[in-house]
Amino acid sequence: MGVIGASSSADSLAIAPLFTLKLIPLISYAASSSALSLRAKYPAFLRTIGSNKDLVDVIIRVLQHFKWTWVALLYSDEAFGKDGLEVCIHEVVPTEICLAYIAAIDDNTNFLNVFQQIDLQNISVIVVYSVQPKALALIEAAVVHNVTNKVWIATDTWFFSKSLTNRSEIERIGTIVGVSEKTANLSGFEDFINSKNHSKPHNVTGDFVCEQDCNCDDITGKDILAEEASYNFQVYTATYAIAQALHNVLECDRGKCKVNGTVYPYMVSKPVDESFAYFSFFLSFYLFASVLKPRSRCGQSCCRPVGFEICKMNTEDSKTLKLNKENHFIFAPSLIGVVFTYPLII
Hints:
Layout: E1 3-4, H1 9-22, E2 26-28, E3 45-47, H2 52-65, E4 70-76, H3 79-91, E5 98-105, H4 111-120, E6 125-129, H5 132-144, E7 150-155, H6 162-165, E8 174-181, H7 189-195, H8 221-226, H9 232-249, E9 252-253, E10 256-257, H10 265-288, E11 306-312, E12 322-323, E13 329-330, E14 334-341
Parallel strand pairs: 1-2, 2-3, 4-5, 4-6, 6-7, 7-8
Antiparallel strand pairs: 8-11, 9-10, 11-14, 12-13
Helix pairs in contact: 2-3, 9-10
């Protein structure tokens, strides 16, 4: 009836045309490329995460609020970073913000040279629009090369990394401000995970593993819950949107459905599109207690308000960090504020 994924923009751009041919709903929980907003080209594609345009819009608001107009932009040399670069260059034009230094980062980047160029231009604010591995390598290099007193603007692709918060002396590099979509705790999710058997099924032989099970006897529900949960809410929203659309097609009510027969993906595609906007708005209102008013559809686009949290990593004040049993810091960011951007081209 529909597919949830893909997680990356590159994969989504590659497979979206195939799903368009049969109008099979494809709902991504993490692909943020602005190119996927072209509804005429990708009519079967939807997503439960903001696009890069939404994220850049909020980053620019943060820069404007603090009057940071002389900044550097470092981006990962792949689909996510390149799209962010393109959107950033376009969006800063009507502002007073100057991208004084722009550089791509990859496995072969000479970070010392990058930091020297930034210092030569007296830049104190660095926007890092990057996937996690490249961003973490950059921050590690900043610590090693004794980069100090900078303001780092982080995307949520790397801001919540546990290896980042566990890095000693990270407080020396300056202040890290993260911009991420608002998250929500899913009621009952923890009980659901703890109720599952995460060991290999007894009636399965060989290397075959079911999606619902894990062929790792050492993994517990606690281990799963300890992992980064950045996309839990987005995956939940995508799953519910497809279920609600199927519910509408079959005209189900109180456990009974009026329609009997075969349901094809194209029959679900339009209801998914329609219920998606309503459901996204409802969840935003219910979970975030936001005073939002539903608006009409934006031309051919499906629109919903998107909330972003602006957080500051508490690295300089040891009182805001706690140690777990492994003597690692538990990330405890300070919420600076919340920004709602509208519309989101899903």
